[in-house]
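agent> Task received from the user: take the single chain below, predict its 3D structure, and emit structure tokens. No templates, no multimer pairing.
agent> Plan: (1) validate residues, (2) run structure prediction, (3) serialize to tokens, (4) report one or two observations.
agent> Step 1 OK, no nonstandard residues flagged.
tool_call: predict_structure(input=
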Amino acid sequence: MFIVEKAQLSSHFRSFTKKSTHVPKNYQLAARSFDEKVILHLKTLDLAPNSSNISLSWLSAAVSFLSTVHSEAEDQISNLKSEADDYQALYMDYSLKVLDLCNLISSAVQRLTDRRLLMNFSLRLLNFTDQIPSPEKLNKAKDVLARSVNDPQESAMEKGRRAKDLIEELAVVIGKLLPRSKTSTGRDLIRRTFYALGVLTVFIGKVLVAVLYGDFDVVELRVPAEFLWADSVNGVQTRIFDLIKSKQNALLEVDNVISQAVVVRDLLQVVGSDGGDNVDVRVRLEDGVKELGTAAKKFSDGVDALTNGVNGMFRTVLKTRNGRLDI
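)
tool_result: status=success, residues=327
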């Protein structure tokens, strides 16, 4: 789980350390530079043409993308010093909601970790190194796999609702920053950069909540055409949300490991019924366990990557919020 201290401190836009005193005079050029960086980072979210499911690896890439954009936005804004003070309260509200959202996402990922523990325990029980495991181990493995396959959503419903509410609250906060004119002043640049960061946060947040908490009612947040990356983000949104709706939020690695766990569970049921005398079933069971091990490894790697990504996002926002302060 995450560190949950979220001190109500002064603006992250001011720093203990000496920052460059340079303030960009060509604000439109600075805005374009930021947009180009976003476009570059968006390449990490490209989906293969034949993708049929969102994967844990894609989710971890999406969270890492958001962390990077947050750092880029902070670098842009921190050079504008006094102009940034006008947005201090708004940023503190925004960042607090993002930290809360990170904790809720962490809780959802923990459920995946719990499922992984059950999968790994069943694989230890189903060790075919010398001979078929004892009937007691086979029965225990069958029960453990049944628990790993069934993941009741009821216990997480309240957290899911809170996560969805946070996304809506973030959308409201960001809506106050919708750029109204050309980027001709420092305040315009801050407003534009902050709005861009917020839009991308809401987009990635919606995907995470939809997939990890089972929210099928996802609504796209369209990006204004004045951003160079608008078409790219809008296109990714459409494709991702179409996958979410058509696949009922199934994650690739989770779907694969559950499917294989069901195969092994059913074979264990057959072995338990015939006492393990059917050689063909025993061979199929041993092969099935090997395939389950392969699927479980990919699932485990995906969970680790997503855990690291969300932890990194939390640390990035916390550092930006509390690490650049004047007392």
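agent> Step 4: summary for the user.
The chain has one domain: 27-42+49-319.
agent> Done.
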